[in-house]
Amino acid sequence: MNRPIIEPFRIKSVEPIRMSTRPEREALLEGAKLNVFLLRAQDVLIDFLTDSGTGAMSARQWAAIMEGDESYAGARSFFRLEAVIRRITGYSHLIPTHQGRAAERIFFAIATRKGDLVPNNTHFDTTRANLEYDGVEAMDLVIPEGTQPHVYHPFKGNIDLQRVEDLLKREGPRIPFGMLTLTNNSGGGQPVSMENLREYSALLKRHGKPLILDVCRFAENAMFIKLREPGFADRSIESIVREMFGHADGCLMSAKKDGMVNIGGFIALHDERWVEAARNLLILTEGFPTYGGLAGRDLEALAVGLEEVLQEDYLRYRLRTAEYMGERLKAGGVAIVEPTGGHAVYLDAKQVLPHLGPEDYPAWSLCNALYLEGGIRGVEIGSVMFGKRLEDGTETYHAMELVRLAFPRRVYTQSHFDYAAEVICQLRSRADEVRGVRITRQSRFLRHFTAEFRWA
Ligand SMILES: *Cc1c(COP(=O)(O)O)cnc(C)c1O
User: What is the tens place of the pLDDT at every residue in 199-236?
Assistant: First the structure.
């Protein structure tokens, strides 16, 4: 018997969401200049904009918040979190930061020099931006399958070891360390196999280079290993996670993802080498080493969140959510990126809206249509985000036109997902009514956050 995988929690506190009518949404979207980033969250029914910092905390986390020790130095909450992170990662040193990009900024400032080069499967955009800010080249070396939306591979986040080896031989002196992102967020939340992690680590070691992991979704990655990689089906998540961390020398973490908290991040490191320099920089911009950029209560909530994220029932439900959405959408004829990753489903707007050309910004149009049709907010990953208007007024376009629906942790129930799937499938059957958009106003950098549009 094939029983549904249910939400492994019951609800103790609720937050109302507001139904709206289509005419209301039309007015609201016009007011937001056809840009869903400019909507007020209260006007969104189902918010799939991001899974970052949008999750629900557990009763245990809220209880831990009351135990926060707000002492400036040497707070009990720091030592509690440090003990949890040591147990999970095996790394001795914890440096708390206010979120992931602060960990990146501090670590890159002390561990790289101008002109360096850092390989990764795919650098997340803040990771790339922080490296480039320091004059470091950020190189993406994901396997070829990782960039093909309709090709199946169980571990599409794997790094291309042959290309890494060539790079180490050619550019060795420029490479201070290697990075690997678990799961590969920019590549669709796709996992990395233990085998790939082990071989990458060994390859770097032969060249005398450390490995630093970007572990925003380490628990989701571990569950994919358990489900898909031979030899791991009977292993506990804790032991898989411990083995993953064991292949590396340290990690950078945005706790807003698998930390199960609304704000937070950290650096964790094996050896002393970088620790003192990192702490000095931390004091300069984040805070004293035993709280970083966080309150004592935030450290408490994170300590509990890191334990809860390792629960297998939770992870099974988490990965099943994306898979289930993918199945429903495919059954309704909606093209998606396959296989589904851990935290999101990506709609292929070129296939859903075949009548629109690149100048119509199909993924942006689809985002707007999802809001109008059902009050759903996703995010465009296409030519508004990655294209540019050149000096001479011509436009460059991105190869893929995707809409990402990212799922907050423990927030929505199956009926919310059923509703969203239904809305999208209905939209698909009337896709020819969806109009393209034109940009009327834009900024030079990260234009998608603030650009304004009109219907084509
Ligand atoms: C979110 C994220 C970051 C940055 O973390 P913030 O907490 O948003 O600053 C870095 N890397 C990856 C893979 C991420 O998903």
Answer: 999 999 999 999 999 999 999 999 999 999 999 999 99
- Homologous superfamily, domain 22-51+311-455: Aspartate Aminotransferase, domain 1 (3.90.1150.10)
Token look-up 């060539």 returns 166
Q: Indicate the top mutation candidate among 123, 128, 182, 216 to test ligand 1's pocket, ranked by most ligand atoms within 8 A of CB.
A: 216
Task: Pick the residue whose CA is nearest to atom 3 on ligand 1.
Answer: 100
CATH of domain 59-308: 3.40.640.10
**154 to each of 22, 27, 118, 225, how far by Cα in Å?**
40, 43, 25, 9
Q: Which residue has the tokens 């289509």?
A: 22
Residues with CB under 6 A from ligand 1: 52, 99-101, 124, 126-127, 181, 185, 214, 216, 254, 256-257, 265
Contact 329, 424 (CB under 8 A): yes
Instruction: Encode pLDDT of 41-99 as tens digits.
Output: 999 999 999 999 999 999 999 999 999 999 999 999 999 999 999 999 999 999 999 99
